[in-house]
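All the exercises in this workshop are built on plain-text protein records. Instead of coordinates, the fold is spelled out as a row of discrete tokens. Once this layout is familiar, the rest of the handout is easier to follow. The record below serves as our worked example for the rest of this section.
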Amino acid sequence: MAVRTEPNRENIMRTVVFLFPGTWGNDTAERVLWWFERPIEALLDVNPKIDVVPIVYAGTTFGEIVCDVLVQLRRYCTGDMRPVALAYGMGRQIFSEVFDILACPHFERVAHIAGVPRNGVPVLGTLDAFRAAPRLFLRSLGGTAMPASVDEVNRIMCSGTDEELAEEIIRKISPEAMYWKIAGLFLPGLRVTTPPIEIPVFATLGLQDAIVGRADYAGDNMIAFNRLEGNHAIIRKDRPDIRATWERQAKFLLEA
């Protein structure tokens, strides 16, 4: 998959798709591009001339990541680009906070996949995720952690149904500072709250997603809300109805 990871400034009003990754596998451009591989393919089928920019997270708290992302985006602040965003999981909250602060570039549209809602993971989702991988949660409260086994990834990301994908995921992630993520995403009273998204939103959610399957994205400017058979790893699935959804998502982002 060949994509440009820096906006091409030689063309007037070139569309730039910024990728906001989720909780795991967000520390290198290569890992971010791997997560978004199939949605990117759909984007390039619609318009092969777009630029795709993976946002890499740096920082050990939500606030530090937001500040670093703002610095990255301001590098691309020009009048000759049309920026849109594609987010996954926690990336929806990162985008929401960034968009509320950032004056330039002014994003026109955003699509998110398995996005964490503005008030954090729903309480029942927290319970489901804890039941799926209790030891991971407990280890995470101690600081830096990552799944100890393919089985943990399979249960929390794939509803226990896709060991092959879980094996691929565990190869693409690295130890992360997890305490603030567990607290900021899951724990009542400590969850991060971000502003609603005012620009048009295209959302896709897996019905069997143990983390955000009960999200409703109240307050967002929802243009399309797709509920498909799938789990939190739906972004990596390859199935006709999912491919069709990525195609509609691409047209939503690129053909406004």
About this structure: The two ends are 25 Å apart (CA to CA). The mean pLDDT is 85.
